[in-house]
Amino acid sequence: MKLYSANAGHFKLDGGAMFGTVPKSIWHKLNPADDNNMCSWAMRCLLIEDGNRLFLIDNGMGNKQSEKFFGYYYMHGDDTLEKSLNKAGFTADDVTDMILSHMHFDHCGGSIQHNKDKTGYEPAFKNAMYYSTERHWKWATEPNPREKPSFLSENILPIQESGQLKFLKEGESITENISVIFANGHTDGMMVPHIKYKGKTLVYMADMMPSVGHIPVNYVMGYDTRPLLTMQEREPFMKRAADEEYILFLEHDPVNECCTVQHTDKGVRLKEKFSLKEYFGE
Question: Which end of the chain is more exposed for a tag (fewer CB within 10 A), N or C?
Fold first, then answer.
């Protein structure tokens, strides 16, 4: 098995929305905002090469939306998922298993692309099985008014229409080294993949903890549908992450790929920040 960080690009979101009730006087030290109060965030995916299978967790926004749509999110930088896959020696056609943490557009937009004549849509990973949860699929395809702008039907419905969709159950193992738990505070039925690698457990945090700036349990996004539930889910998880020395892979942190946490007098806090390459020497 081998792991690769695969950045699908950077975009901007309102800093206040990303940190909820945490005052700007605190969060701006962690993620500085521009003159419009917007902070830069990554869309960092994880590529897992395991024997004859190639897993990809999340895939960014994709490129099929309108110029007006992308204008809202200030896409910037040179990173794309295609470039990241190529850098690791792969293409989209090599991906055999596409794990979607959840269906918000910045996590699953790259799942589907226009067909050649742009008369319809097709899977961007034509040889891959797409994994979601039945609970989240229902939540995403029958969206509540608050989340509806994040669940774009063109990103979601073609997956099922292609016949490439498979639902995972709570705690189900995809392989002996890859399993998932569910988290429901951010959105219903979000998957948080756990990967056993070189004697360690690496956790793909998705929106359960977007960045190192969100480590304190009460640093919860305004985007979370149930912020109190997020805190209830995160508190025991973060204690376990400190106890068992989990490596936390950060999808949205604009600078840091991974971190570890430790127990302190103030609760669980940051221990170390590093890249996959730095930690595993690859």
Answer: C
pTM of the predicted structure, to 2 decimals: 0.96
User: How far is C-alpha 172 from the chain's CA centre?
Assistant: 19
Residues near 175 by Cβ (< 8 Å), separated by ≥ 6?
50, 53
For residue 87, count other CB atoms closer than 10 A to its CB.
Answer: 14
Token digits of residue 88? 């690791």
Write the burial class of residue 111 (CB in 10 Å: 0-12 exposed, 13-18 middle, 19+ buried).
buried
Per-residue pLDDT at 136: 97
CA distance 51 to 96: 11
What integer pLDDT is reported at residue 172 of this predicted model?
84
Q: CA 205, CA 199: separation in Å to the nearest integer?
A: 19
| Structure confidence at residue 281 as a pLDDT band (50, 70, 90) | confident
Q: What's the pLDDT band for 171 if we cut at 50, 70, 90?
A: confident
Residue 23 has pLDDT above 90, yes or no: yes
The amino acid sitting at 4 is: Y
> In whole angstroms, how far apart are CA 258 and each of 46, 54, 56, 77, 127?
11, 21, 17, 20, 29
Give the whole-angstrom CA distance, residue 16 versus residue 12: 12
Backbone φ, ψ for residue 3 (5° rounding): -110, 145
Task: Copy the structure tokens of residue 254.
Answer: 């604009």
